[in-house]
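Re: [ENG-882] Designed sequences occasionally contain unexpected residues at chain ends

Forwarding the minimal case from QA. Structure tokens:
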């Protein structure tokens, strides 16, 4: 298994470290040629406007769209989720458009810049998942093919999947809980998620 983590800006090192703890080869990706032979792509958190601009400059947008269209699993966390969205509040036209979701940037950040909250994510089992939110976006609308994986107590959707695409508002890579990373690997392998030991 080889997972590529887009490494232009933001929290790529933390994702690479999390996959390493699962004994998975995770490689920083900056150039289109580094997308060859991957089993999955992660777009980390950071600043979505900066990553968007750099992904375009480095010629990554077209190849990522094409690989995702061929079924390669793609996971966006926080700013990465903003980039996966079909529509984001801003930049209105800047996203990869790989998920049928509408995202509002900084929706949680305006009230509190950063907070932690125990999340219920039934797909990952009964144990609460530690949600770390940093100027986090929310999913405002979900298309027909999109499954909500996690909601805040007020009903706001903070994680979703659509076929081979996965998105979350929070930062699993900043916690010790590796279940979200393991779940992404099951998409890459085509396995069912089996209860993790973490
Ligand atoms: N607010 C940032 C953005 O919209 C995302 C923050 C993050 O990734 N932690 O780009």
């Amino acid at each position: 298994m080889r997972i590529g983590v887009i490494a232009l800006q933001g929290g790529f090192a933390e994702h690479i470290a999390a996959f390493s703890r699962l004994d998975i080869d995770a490689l920083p990706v900056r150039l289109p040629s580094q997308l060859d032979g991957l089993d999955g792509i992660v777009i980390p958190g950071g600043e979505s406007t900066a990553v968007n601009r750099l992904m375009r400059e480095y010629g990554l947008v077209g190849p990522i769209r094409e690989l995702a269209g061929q079924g390669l699993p793609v996971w966006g966390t926080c700013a990465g989720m903003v980039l996966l969205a079909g529509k984001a509040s801003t930049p209105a036209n800047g996203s990869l458009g790989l998920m049928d979701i509408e995202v509002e940037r900084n929706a949680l950040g305006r009230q509190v810049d950063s907070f932690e909250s125990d999340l219920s994510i039934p797909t990952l089992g009964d144990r609460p998942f530690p949600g770390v939110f940093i100027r986090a976006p929310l999913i405002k609308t979900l298309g027909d093919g999109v499954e909500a994986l996690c909601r805040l107590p007020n009903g706001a959707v903070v994680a979703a999947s659509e076929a081979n695409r996965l998105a979350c508002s929070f930062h699993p890579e900043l916690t010790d809980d590796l279940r979200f990373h393991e779940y992404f690997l099951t998409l890459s392998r085509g396995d069912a998620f089996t209860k993790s030991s973490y």
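QA comment: On inspection the terminal residues look reasonable. The chain has a mean pLDDT of 92. Proposing we downgrade this to a documentation issue.
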